[in-house]
C-alpha cells in the first residue's frame, strides 16, 4: 500500500494528519506543497483536489480529503469503539477545529497583507473573545483527564495539539486556565507532536504576527 500525504510542514491541519501517521509508524511519502518550492507536488495535489485545501491523503491512488477523515482512515484505533466515548472524541475534534483553530486563523488572516491590507481591530477582538470562551470551556472539560477525552490519546488530541499550539501564539492562554495550559504542554511533548513541531521550525519566519521565541 502506497500512502502519500500532501501538505505543508507549518500547517496546523497538516500536523493533524501527520500525528496519526507518526503514532502508528505507517510508511508514507510526504509531498510538500510549499508555494513555488515544489511545483510538481502542487500540480499533483491540484489534479487530485482542485479545491486546493490541504492536507490530502492519497492511498493507492484514492484521494482522502479532510483532516478528521484522514485520521480515521490511517488510524481507526484513535476513535474509541464505545459509543459514548466516540461521541466525546468526535465532539472535541470539532471543538478544537471550529472554536479554537477557526478564530486563531481569523486573527492570522488579519495580519496577512495579501488578504487584509489593514488589520481590522474589531474582527481581531471578536476572534480573541471567541478564543477566551473556548479556553474557559476546555479548561473545565479537560479537568481530571490526561489526554483530551480521557486516559487514551485519540483523534481529539490530533486536533487539539496543533490548534492549541497556534492559538496560544495568537492569544495566550491565561494563567487562570491552568488545566488547559498543562494539557497544551503535555500534548506538545508527545513524540508524534514534538516531531511535527520540530519539522516546522524552519518555517517560523512565515508566521505573520512574528513567531514567539518559545515552544
Q: Termini separation (Å)?
A: 35 Å
Radius of gyration: 17 Å
Major β-sheet, in short? Answer: 4 strands, mixed
Q: How many beta-strand elements?
A: 4
User: If you average the pLDDT, what whole number results?
Assistant: 96
Strand content: 5-15%
Count of helical regions: 8
SS-based class? alpha+beta
Shape: globular
Order of strands, main sheet, comes to 2-1-3-4
Percent helix range: 40-55%
Kindly describe this structure.
There is one protein chain. Helix 1 runs parallel beside helix 3 (67-74) and helix 1 runs antiparallel to helix 6. The chain has helices at 12-24, 39-48, 67-74, 83-110, 121-141, 155-170, 178-188, 191-200; strands at 3-7, 29-32, 56-59, 62-65. It is of the alpha+beta class and 215 residues long.
Which features does this protein show?
215 residues; four-stranded mixed β-sheet; 54% helix; 8 helices; alpha+beta; globular; single chain
Topology:
Layout: E1 3-7, H1 12-24, E2 29-32, H2 39-48, E3 56-59, E4 62-65, H3 67-74, H4 83-110, H5 121-141, H6 155-170, H7 178-188, H8 191-200
Parallel strand pairs: 1-2
Antiparallel strand pairs: 1-3, 3-4
Helix pairs in contact: 1-3, 1-6, 1-8, 4-5, 4-6, 5-7
Summarize the structure.
54% of the residues lie in helices and 8% in strands.
